[in-house]
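Marked as duplicate of an earlier ticket. Keeping the data here for the record.
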Amino acid sequence: MSEASQWTFFTNHAHVMVCLTKNSDQPLREVALEVGITERAVQRIIADLEEGGYLVRERIGRQNSYSLILDKALRHPIEANHTIGDVLRVLAEE
């Protein structure tokens, strides 16, 4: 397979959100393994999502729990009439 054909339809930000939708208490190292990126990259994505108002991090004991703001509109003007909840409901189905 050529390198040009290895792209994916969704970004790593979307992949992280799908993982957190399935298990909001999942350790970030497990998210990183599932997405196929480093734990540090997941931490940066979490910070982006928090800063953008798409995610709230809550400390529970020694662990974090993540809550996605499902009614938050998508950022691009083409998608702005949809929420992350709209997308995640479809992607998180098994």
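See parent ticket for discussion. Strands lie at 55-60, 63-68.
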